[in-house]
Amino acid sequence: MKVILLGEIKGKGGEGDIVDVAQGYAENYLFPKKLAVAATKGELKQLEQRRNNIAKREEKRLADANALKAALDGQQVTVDVKVGDEGILFGSVTAAMVADAIKAQLGIDIDRKRVELGKPIKVAGAHTVPVSLYRDIRAEVVVLVGVTAEEAAEEAAEEIVEEAAEAVAAEEIIEEVVEEAVEAAE
After folding, report:
1. Which residues lie in coiled coils (predicted)?
2. CB-based burial, 109-126: b 16+ in 10 Å, e otherwise
3. What's the predicted TM-score (pTM) here?
4. Topology adopted by domain 2-71
5. Is the domain covering 72-155 a CATH 2.160.10.10 domain?
C-alpha cells in the first residue's frame, strides 16, 4: 500500500516521502498515529502544493541536526555507577542513562531512543557511543563510566605505549627471522 509520510519514520523516510508499506502497518499504526495518509490522487495533488513548505522544513531540520552534531561530536559525559573488582559494574549503563547524562552535563536534550548503544555498558572505562540526530546524521559522544577524564586519558596513553612496545617486539622478531633465513640461504 502506498502512503505519504507526514513526519520522519526511522527506516522508512521523511516528511513528504511516498513509500510502500504493508496494509496492516498503515491501517493499524501509521494512520491512527497520523504519521501518514493514503497516497490517493487528491492527497498527491495536495502534496505537490506543499512541496515548497516541506523543503523549507527539511532544510531547517538538517541545519538543526548539523548544529547539534557540531555541539555533541567528541564531547565527554560521565556516568557515575558503582564499580566492582576488575572494572565490572554493578548493573549496567543504558541508553536512558546516557541521554540523561548528556542533558545534565551538556544541556542538550536527546531522546533516549536516539542513543545507539546496542548493548548496555557493563565495564568501566571510556566508551564511544553514537547518537542518531536526524536521518543519517550521527554524532559520537565519549561516555566515561566509573572513571574520570584524567584516568581515561592515562588508560588511553598506556594502551598506545603497549601497542608501540608490541610493534617494536614484532619488528625485532621479524629481523631475527630474516637474519636466520639469510644465514640459511648462504
Report:
1. 37-75
2. ebeeebbebeeebeebbb
3. 0.68
4. Ribosomal Protein L9; domain 1 (3.40.5)
5. no
